[in-house]
Design a protein that fits this description.
mainly alpha, Four Helix Bundle (Hemerythrin (Met), subunit A), 2 domains, two-stranded antiparallel ribbon, 3% strand, elongated, FadR family transcriptional regulator, Tscrpt_reg_HTH_GntR, transcription regulation, WH-like_DNA-bd_sf
Amino acid sequence: MRKDEVRDLRVVTNLRTSHARVVDQLGLAIVGGQFAIGEPLPGDSELESQFDVSRSVLREAMKTLTAKGLVVAKSRVGTRVTDRCHWNLIDEDVLRWHFKAGVTREFIDYLYDVRLVFEPASAAYAALRATPEDCAELRRYANLLGAKDLDWQSQVEADLRFHVLLVLAGANPFLESMIGFLKAALDGAFTLAFDPKLAGRGETIIDTHLAIVDAIEQKDADAARAATEKVVQLGRITALRAVDASTNRT
């Protein structure tokens, strides 16, 4: 992703093709447990009829699910759901399906452990490599967080753009490959934790993000890392509370 694409990031992805629709529905069904580990998927004819797609579209969808580690095809056996240890959890779609299907405290903790590894590192690199334009844009996004005149989706998109740009400002291509994971993690966590009563929380989330920008502008890698760790840990607390609240409601 290029920096000039960040302003157009959205939290909602429209499924524009039949292939994407089949992948999304089957992927969610697998992650959600509608098909058990080791269970074969329905045959091609049944799936073609169910999704009203051609054989070629279905085969491409299966190739995509195979690449994500969710299924494996064997001759004379059919296509079966693989063990979870083979699922690519950092894949944007696979992570998004987990949030849709419902996540546990353990899952959230593991997710935030990963964020805690790579986002502070990205911030530290950003302190060494970010341009003045990067800093100005990061500051603009930070000031939008928690704004009372913005709806939930606009706030989430500002947060998404902040964190994606933070990674890009670090200019490490290996860390940049984690942007899809980051997008799905933020989208899922904010959707999980959203409460209209919290829409005006404002100052805390703005200040913690501005602390990251301040450290980057001062080219203080250690301070940028520490400020980002604080933001991620606060996000972990909010997400865990949301999981607990959801569990209590059920």
